[in-house]
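Students often ask why we bother encoding 3D structure as a string. The short answer is that it lets us treat folding as translation between two languages. Here is a chain of 166 residues written in the first language.
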Amino acid sequence: MEDFKIRNVVEEDFVDIAELAEECSPMETERNSIYHIFTKFFRSTSFVAELPSGEIAGFVLGFISQENLEEAYIHLLCVDPRMRERNIGRKMVEVFINAVASKGCKKVNLITKPINWNSISFYKKLGFLEDKSGKTMNVLGTTAIKNYNGIGQHMVVFYKFIGNTS
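And here it is in the second language, the structure alphabet:
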């Protein structure tokens, strides 16, 4: 039985999310205002895993593209290192995918750093595929899109088709 529940974020969660993000290296941390923006304006596509104590054990922040309503993006996923191996990350991604699929999305995109082997392995296990289009390079044995997020910011780009893609 799960000892956590997944719920949509509320605006007041942003401080707890910001604090938890500090524990999720090598994930990139954001300015607190970014977490606040997600908890205020992207509540229907952002979620936390909450323990019975009320403590946040993880979060996924994402949104639906305003340019292509059939595509969504996972901006950040973090699980408290003490809470890993409990399927919290998997469950949050599933809830995110179900939420965006119910709104008509057919594809989910995300990126991660080439050094984040745990994240790369995790997303592959969930059926995400690496986007190897564009200029790629080998970084630590991983294929990354060169300069994806700016000069020297090479990223592994993932996508997954979801829902009814016909």
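Translate back mentally: The two ends are 35 Å apart (CA to CA). Keep this in mind for the problem set.
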